[in-house]
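Re-run with default settings, no changes from the original entry. Doing this only to confirm the output is reproducible before filing.
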Amino acid sequence: MVSTTIITFLHRAVVQGIPLLYGSTGEILTEKSGNLNLGIPGIMYMGGISGVIGAFLYENSLASKDEASAFLSIFIPLLSSILGSLLAGLIYCFLTVTLRANQNVTGLALTTFGVGFGNFFGASLVKITGSDVPSVALSITSAYFTKKLPIASTTGWFGKVFLSYGFLAYFAIIVAIICAIFLKRTKGGLSLRAVGENPATADAAGINVNRSKYLATCIGSVIAGLGGLYYVMDYANGVWSNEGFGDRGWLAIALVIFAIWRPNLGIFGSILFGGLYIAFMYIPGLSLKSQELFKMLPYVVTIIVLILVSVRKKRENQPPASLGLSYFREER
C-alpha cells in the first residue's frame, strides 16, 4: 500500500513538474542573455491557448473522429503554440531590446496581456461550442499527446514512474539537457553568457548583442510556451478553462533561482517542486487553510536557496551581471 502511494506520488510529481521545467528552461536561456522576462506566465498562457485554437480548428474540420490524422493532430497544435509564444517573445524583445523599455515593467505587462489573451480566446471558443460548462474539450487531439509508451503497462513500478508519460514530458527533459550543454560546452553558449555578463565587452569582441538577445529570448519563449501546451493537452487531457494554470508560471520563474540558472538542475528541481505542490494531497486531516500553506512550500524552498547562494557568493551560482539592464551601445 505504501509503495503504491509512493509510486503514484512520484508519477504525479513529474506530471506537475513538466510545465515548470519548460518555463524555467526557457527563462534560464532568456536570462543568460541578460533579459529578465517576468512575462513567462503570460507566455505559457499564450502558448497554451494558441495550441488549443489550432486543435479546435482542426477537430472541427473533421467529419468524424476516424478521419483524424496522428501527425496533424500533433503538428497543428504544436505549430500554433510555437507561433503564439514566439509572437510573445518578439513583443518582449521589441520593447526591451529595440526600444529599451524597462524589463520588469514589460514582463509584468506581458503576463497581464498573455492571461487576458488566453481568457479572451478561451471564452470565445466556449461561446462557439455553445457549451454550458465554461471550458473547451479537445479529446481527439489530447489522445495523441497523452499516448504512453506501449511497454509502460507491462513493466510494473518502473513503467509507472519512468515510462508512463506523453512525448512532451520526455521532450522537456531533452530540451533542458540540450540547453545545459549549449550554455556550458559550446562557443555559442559562451558568447550568450558573455552578452549576459557584460554586453559592452561582448559587443567590443564582435558579438551582435541585440541578435543574441532576440534569439535567446524568442527561443526561450517558445520553450516556455510548450509548457502551456503540455498543461492543456497532457495534464488537463485537452480541457481548456480560463485561469486554469494557477500560479505555475510564477513557480517556473522561482525554479530558475532554485536551479541556480542551470537547466540540468531544473530537471530535478521541477520534480521536487511538483512534489511539494501536491504534498498536501497525501497528508490526511489537513484543513483548507493548511493546504494553501503547503502550496507555498516551493516558494519557501526557493527563498532558502536564494539566501544560501547569496551568503556563499560563488560567482557561478549568481545571476548574469547585466540581468535586467538594457544595453545602450552609445554608452560603451
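Strands lie at 136-137, 239-240. The chain has a mean pLDDT of 92.
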